[in-house]
Amino acid sequence: MVIFAIAAGLVTLRMLPDDRERARREADSAAVLLERAADEAERTGRVIAWHPDGASARFEVPDPDGKWIPLADDPDFGQRALSGELAWSALHFVQPPDTGGGATDAGSDATASGTRLVFLPGQTVPVFDIRVGTAGAQVLLRGDALGHVSVEAVP
Asked: In sequence order, which ranges of 86-150 are alpha helices (DSSP H)?
C-alpha cells in the first residue's frame, strides 16, 4: 500500500508542469495575441499597445488625451496574470519602431521608456525580445519587423 501511494505521488508530480513548461505556455499564448494585435492595429487603423508589467500584461489604447487605457472591447486582449512565480523581464527593443517621421505619443512611448510594445497602423512593427519565466527557467519571445513572434528556449 505504501509503495502504491509513493508511486501515485510521483505520477502526480510528473503531471504538474514545471516552471519552464508554464513559461512556454504563457509565451505561446502571448505570441499569438501579439501577432493578432499587430494585425488588428493594421486592420482597424488604431494604435494598440502591449504593456508587460511584472507578473501580468495588458493591451492598451490611447484615449483622446493620449493617456493609455485598457483595451476593453475584446476579452482576449484583457489583463492577463501569469501563473505561479512567473514574471516578464524588461522589454528590449532590438530595432526601435519606425514612426515614419510622424511620431505620436504612442509610438515614442515604446522607443523612450521601453515599457510598452506599440503597434502603429501603417508602420513597421518594432523588433523586440522579452523573457518570461523564473530566475532558473525562462523562454524568450522574439518579434520581427513583419509582425511574426517566435518563442525560443533560453539555455
From this structure: 105-113
